[in-house]
Design brief:
Helix content: 40-55%
Distance between the termini: 41 Å
Largest sheet: 5 strands, parallel
Shape: flat
Strand content: 5-15%
Number of domains: 3
Oligomer: single chain
Number of strands: 11
């Protein structure tokens, strides 16, 4: 579990984040240290490991400046389970303690999915062989009844040729067809296969209320008791490969081992990102009732999870002591100090993210591996159309996005999605009916100015607010 983290030094982590996120160096440094500290803890003496708690991080910054993207990319770099929740949603459903725990259960589900995928990849070769056998059985049924190879006659003909046994001939034919299956030569041939299906009945509830974990456990128990039934389907060999591979790989892995490893992965590497934490910050000048009390109640429900507690899931009990929590909020109205002191104390690292400048917008369009410009280039390339952006066009788009953000609500880098959409939608509509394959589109600064000038001139920009 720690070998991958061992290669990720703080500088290397920041370098990886730089491939996708422009600026925000202070935030990157802090999350890089937090991630490296997980490896340091797991490689410390056992008697001190449990005492080392993560330095949870509170990110403060306007929408669209990269808070969520930093956390999401951090999880991908670490190959860690990641869950994003919105604190403001808690109030909408009258959150109580067990509902807050759902974020931890979601994290475990993520971890189980990751470990299951990894395990299936490890048994992929064996699973592929099993799939080939099933397809071969459908194409060339094996000889049953007389599987004993007939004895070779002692007196063979003078040329030394021995009559071929039926089983040998069948086996040779199957091996030839196995090669054809592997090479894709038979992918269009239709065969009939049996697909296993769970016949799990829906569970009704009579009597008192039941918490989510109990309901999930009962459903899983009933699902395990009900036998799996096969359903005959006529599909192509190519479709059969895909349908059967996951099923056969699942048979080769030990789900108890998967669950145990997933719990450990979630406990030691899991990251929970709590967005809009400022929406549940309560004003200290308020009275003793109303929405402030509700918001403080949400904070108190969050507190034991962040402090460290045991949460029941259908895969087992998980301790949240060493899960990394990253909270984020704009804090335009409330202040971080409006959070209850106990919760403030559980987010000791505070990072303020900078508002994006015109130069930042230019770099966001040009530099990241997943830049919007590169996404549109890839989509048009799929149609055989070559899309290119002149440098002046990128600078003009950055200028317009920055100016619109300054004039109306600042939505950060998300404004670039509006700009790109308005700029290229006409082209996207005309491809491929009007603009066919092997065409070329070059976006110039003049084209950007002509198509987007109304965004700046029109002071009623509500249609452009995402």
């Amino acid at each position: 579990m720690t070998e991958h983290l061992n290669r990720l030094t703080p500088r290397q982590i920041v370098f990886e984040l730089d491939q996708y996120i422009i600026g925000q160096n202070d935030a990157k440094r802090n999350v890089a240290i937090a991630l490296r500290n997980r490896w340091r803890r797991m490689n410390s003496p056992e008697d001190i490991q449990k005492e080392i708690i993560p330095n949870n991080i509170l990110m403060i910054g306007a929408t669209g400046v990269g808070k969520t993207e930093i956390a999401r990319r951090l999880a991908k770099i670490a190959d860690a389970p990641f869950v994003k929740v919105e604190a403001s949603k808690f109030t909408e459903v009258g959150y109580v303690g067990r509902d807050v725990e759902s974020m931890v259960r979601d994290l475990v589900e993520q971890a189980v999915g990751m470990v299951r995928t990894q395990k299936k990849e490890e048994v992929k070769i064996k699973a592929e062989q099993a799939v080939e056998d099933i397809i071969l059985d459908a194409l060339i049924p094996p000889i049953h009844g007389n599987n004993v190879v007939k004895p070779r006659p002692e007196n063979t003909e003078s040329n030394g040729v021995i009559p071929e046994d039926d089983n040998e001939l069948n086996q040779r034919t199957r091996e030839r067809f196995r090669e054809k299956i592997r090479n894709g030569e038979l992918d269009e041939r239709k065969i009939e296969i049996e697909i296993q299906q769970n016949q799990s009945p829906s569970v009704g509830m009579i009597g008192g209320a039941m918490d989510d974990v109990s309901m999930m456990n009962i459903q899983e128990m009933i699902g395990n008791m009900v036998p799996r039934r096969g359903k005959k389907r006529k599909v192509t060999v190519g479709e059969a490969k895909k349908l059967l591979l996951d099923e056969e790989a699942g048979k080769l892995i030990d789900m108890d081992e998967v669950k145990l490893e997933a719990i450990q992965k979630a406990e030691n590497l899991g990251i929970i990102f709590i967005d809009e934490i400022d929406k549940v910050a309560s004003s200290r000048s308020g009275g003793g009732s109303g929405p402030d009390v509700s918001r403080e109640g949400v904070q108190r429900d969050l507190l034991p999870i962040v402090e460290g507690s045991a949460v029941n899931t259908k895969h087992g009990v998980i301790n949240t002591d060493h899960i990394l929590f990253i909270a984020a909020g704009a804090f335009h109205v409330a202040k971080p100090s409006d959070l209850i002191p106990e919760l403030q104390g559980r987010f000791p690292i505070r990072v303020e993210l900078n508002s994006l400048t015109e130069s930042d917008f230019y770099q966001i369009l040009k530099t990241p591996k997943n830049a919007l410009t590169k996404q549109y280039e890839a989509m048009m390339e799929a149609e055989g159309v070559d899309l290119q952006f002149e440098d002046g066009a990128l600078r003009e788009m950055a200028r317009i996005a920055f100016e619109v953000n300054s004039e109306v609500e600042n939505i950060g880098a998300r404004r670039l999605q509006t700009v790109m959409s308005l700029l290229l939608n006409d082209f996207m509509f005309d491809i491929p009916d009007v603009i066919g394959p092997d065409s070329s589109i070059i976006v110039t600064a003049e084209m950007v100015s002509e198509k987007l000038s109304h965004m700046v001139k029109n002071r009623d920009l509500s249609q452009f607010i995402l």
